[in-house]
Amino acid sequence: MDVDWNSSGDLSRIIAFEIHLGLNFLMQDDNLERMLMAVPEHSAFGTIPVLDLEIGVWAGTEQQAKLDINSNNINNSQILVAGASGSGKTNLLMTIMHQFRSIAADTRYPVNFLLFDYKDEYSATANSSWLNLLDVSRSCILNPVEKPLPFNPFKDFTNRPINEINLYSSEMASCLCALSRVSISANMSDRLSRAIVEAYRKTHQKPITFAMMLEEYRLLSDDSQGDSITSVLNQLVTNNLFSAEDKADLLGNSYIIKLGTFPQDGPLAKAIVYFMMSKLNNIYELTPPQDKTEERVQIRHFSIIDEAHHMLRFDNRPLRRLIVEGRNKGMSIILATQNMAEFKSEYFDFYANAEYPLIMRQQTIDDKVLKDLFGVNGRDFQELKEAVAALQKGELIIKNQTALQMGFGKRWKKILVNRLV
Amino acid sequence: MAINIDNEMFSKIRQEVSLYDKLAPVAEKIVKRVNLRTSDDVVYGETGLNNNIVIRVCLLTGLSQTCERTKDALNKIELSPNHLHQSLFMTNNMLVFIHL
User: Fold this and answer.
1) Same structural domain for residues A22 and A77?
2) Which site among A322, B36, B61, B91 is 20 to 30 Å from A234 CA-CA?
3) Residue A371 lies in a domain
């Protein structure tokens, strides 16, 4: 077509024509929805994003250090972060989360997250820019003090065998006992378990509530004064932490749970984290397997538990299960704590199940953990220990997978983390 | 084919007659889809959706269409004396036509 591109008349007509063409297209069928949701079938938007998280540079080089989260070369996508206060842990977590979100945002495989904000750092109005980095708005902040969390944490056993409820009730009973950190007799634990089964019987196996659990427990109890279990259940009921029904999609959206008001090692904060992880387990069971290609697997969701040591000091089955099996459904976990020894709990070796243990500056260095984690001894170990001791803010040590596989070379590498917040 | 258009030209682009009336249905459709509201309680001011955004969305969508363009179709377009604002093309350093 013969067009004079420097004639304002021709150019105006061309632009008007293109606007018109777009307008007509958008008004037809569901073209607008398809465009807004950016799900073209045969384009890069439709492919599983390459989640190679750029977290910094390898020390001594200018080469980007990347964590491969979803290629078929890695066994799982779990990340452990151990770093003392002031080691740059929050910045590292933000960098990881920002990478997850920004890489996947414009694809049909967005990665959502659940973050437990123990110190109200992420939900602070002064840190509003952090939310922009995570591509969320303030509406994602859930404050259980103001409003119950919009989830029922209990499992739905409709049309399931009663034996499953029995097993589940024992697990719940032992968890509540662990959360309260008080000595509980076998009798009390058994009574709680029976109370849970009884509550489920009354709901016809639909999800129960803490109030129902408490009521049934009281009915089974001889002690009118109440015991330590009554006290924990009472706290959970009075504080009204969870809704009786699910009102939000935990996997399909991102949430920051504000926990700053609760004492970190008190039963309420622990109960919130525990029951949210338990809820994720329930969702996990109902979720279809994730999409896969020859090179990559879909990651749907990641949960971040900072100050995770509160969750590691008892037999935390939901967390264990998510760590071991989460990848099958595209669920990833990031745990952060101050002391590297916390991840080697008596109940579970988190290191053995995490692809990326990241060691930042430590207050106390645990020799055994370092030796086991990096497979080093003698001079290599001394060198590694010195390197960990010399870590500065924003630096971390990671396993050198190539050296570990080849059986020679330095078994660790240092990363200088990008400064984001 | 490289097309060179003088930046100055973008201040001289005229609108099609009744452009904003024609945009209204697609604007309403976007508002409804994004805010998940019913058409009864649509309040444009609350959405942050301005006409420039709607024009840009339509223009970019139009440019992505692969159908044939003819001189006849272009000549049928009636232009009003009003101009499109230059910022429509220049926002966020977007120079739509410069690299066509």
Assistant:
1) no
2) A322
3) yes
- Chain A's closest residue to B67, CA to CA, is A21
Residue B47 lies in a domain: yes
Out of B14, B26, B69, the one facing A17 most closely (by C-beta) is: B69
pLDDT (tens digit per residue) in A369-417: 999 888 888 898 999 999 999 999 999 999 988 877 777 788 899 999 9
Write out the residue range of the structural domain in which residue B23 sits.
17-64
Contact residues on chain A for B63, CB-CB shorter than 8 A:
18, 22
Q: Write the pLDDT tens digit of every residue in B16-69.
A: 988 888 988 898 888 777 764 444 444 444 445 677 788 989 999 999 888 999
Strand pairing category for A412-417 and A52-58: antiparallel
Which residues form the domain of A145? 52-151+242-417
- Cα dihedral sign, A316-A320-A326-A328: negative
N-terminal to C-terminal alpha carbon distance within chain A:
53
CB A54 within 8 A of CB B99: no
Longest dimension (CA), chain A: 95
Cβ proximity of A412 and A387 under 8 Å: yes
Strands A52-58 and A64-68: antiparallel
Question: Is the pTM for the entire model greater than 0.90?
Answer: no
Predicted ipTM of the assembly: 0.84
Question: pLDDT band at residue A182, thresholds of 50, 70 and 90?
Answer: low
B52 found inside a domain: yes
**Cβ-Cβ contacts under 8 Å, B77 against chain A:** 13, 16-17, 20
